[in-house]
Specification:
single chain, mainly alpha, 52 residues, 79% helix
């Protein structure tokens, strides 16, 4: 997130909206990573349960 130095309420509001968008993007990336990790874990567990 970029540094900011808001000088007016409008500047501060714009910074808040930018921060909110950044947090949403971060959350979406984390959700994607968790989903991928869950799939990998499920495949690993399934492979471990198969007899050789």
């Amino acid at each position: 997130m970029p540094a900011s130095a808001p000088q007016t309420n409008g500047d501060l509001s714009a910074d808040i909206r930018q921060l909110e968008r950044a947090l949403v993007q971060c959350a979406l990336q984390i959700e994607t990573l968790k989903h991928c990790q869950d799939e990998i874990n499920a495949k690993t567990q399934l492979s471990a349960q198969r007899p050789d």
